[in-house]
Design brief:
The chain is an alpha/beta fold. It has 14 helices and 10 strands. Helix 2 packs across helix 4 and helix 9 crosses helix 10.
Amino acid sequence: MGESAEGRASKAATSADVAHLAGVSRATVSFVLNNAPQSIAPKTRENVLRAARLLNYRPNLSAKALVEGSSRVVLFDLSSSSWNGQAMHVLAELTRVLAEHGLVTAVHLDAPVPQSLLSTALRIRPRLVLPKRPLSPEERAEFDNAGILVAEVSETELTAVEDLAARIRLEHLRQRGHSRIAIAEREGQGEMSVVEARRRAVVTAAAELGLPEPRVAAFHDGPSAVSQVRRMPDAGITAVCAFNDDTALATIRAAADAGLRCPEDLAVIGADDTFPGSVAFPPLTTVKVDFERLGKLFAPAVLATLGIEAEPLPDVNDVVTLVVREST
């Protein structure tokens, strides 16, 4: 008695199983699932795809790589200084999207040797590399000679999200009657791209909203935070737009040590909506990022480099949400 489709699906299905269920050859299955240029009748293509779904068929990526002459790995080059919760969430969503197309994500963290990305890439031979910095002509030539694609993905999507978050935060503070606003960030973080992006976004949003340019208050420990906060009332500052929730909580603590009440004397708004912020005293007003949607904003550029059509982009306005609590 022949084995049912359900029985075959209960174990790892092969292309032979798909071919048997669809009533076609394994070559036809390969042509359909790999989008090969061979002409396949629409009905046959539909039968193969249906059989693959019924059997929960997953291609053998190693075998596929041998046929294609390249791996299925996408190598992300990240800075260890930006390896935070947000980066991990975004990378997790990108990993999920790429996996739907049979691609595997690998991460390369920066190292003391500038050429380490190239060395790593030449060892694992990824299909695609996404460097964190522009490559030199010599480096790009090395990748080209090795047959490794390079995608220097534009930061337009991330910039749009930071701009939106900044505008949402400043509009909220303005509605609460604040015009003189400070930007709080940790001293020494100024070289991190995400810190610079958020600072620029807040300054730009203030100009667009007709607010005075925010003053940057950077601190490295408790006493320096108290010193910065204590000077704010004399400068007419009544609100702080912090780099993230951690910096916002440090600002609230510094305000208390400086004898200021939050939000009566100094309103504070954070970013990223962390659990500590939600249970702090007072609970922190912040902005929440939908990391699933944020990851999807980056996926199309990655997939396009590989010639893969992606789903339509989500609306950037749905990525950031204001969470109003008691600190403003």
